[in-house]
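pasting for ref
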Amino acid sequence: MTVMLAPLLHVDSSADREASVSRQLGRLFADEWRGGGGTVRYRDVSAEPVPPLREAYARLGRRVERKGVLSLDDIAALVEDADEQREWDLTLPLITEVREARAVLLGVPMYNFGVPATFKAWIDRISFPGAFVDPVTGRKLLADKDFVVVNARGGGYGPGAPREKFEFQESYLRAYLSDKGADRVTFVSQEFTRVGDVPALDGLEDLAAASRATARSRVLELARAIR
């Protein structure tokens, strides 16, 4: 009998459908996950953008916060009009995908030192008050999930690099996921992805190749370990 693993939620956000490094690393992880018998639920927030929040989202969110942490059914019962219903209908499926996943794989390129706007829109929408807290016990629902974030960066932004202070991609996601109660978070970064395109990066080919090899090896290692 084949044992099916709980699903992996794979979220891609790069606008580049052909040459994206974060997409390449994400596919490598997802393929390895499937090869071990796991299932993958895929969402591409660049191809199918998540609508930005509207006033009714904030209105419903404030009403929920005043009552404390609620179940998803209790939140739905507080919807008061068509605009709030629209916002909740856009939000609930995204929250449910995260809650039902065994592990979450996030493909995130660096855009202007941070994350893509399409990815931030997804984050904003799933961050509905109390969405990842058990209303009975107060337990953080993301604590027992593995999160793997595959980052791609055109240059070098790691510790000690001249442009380290411009890094608001991994640091932002690390703070966000920690705040939401995610305890098992691993980042895999491939740097110098624009070597060959940007003249200022000429001469860094060896660093780019080493970063690529390390990232790909780490992605496969994580997929096998987590499943």
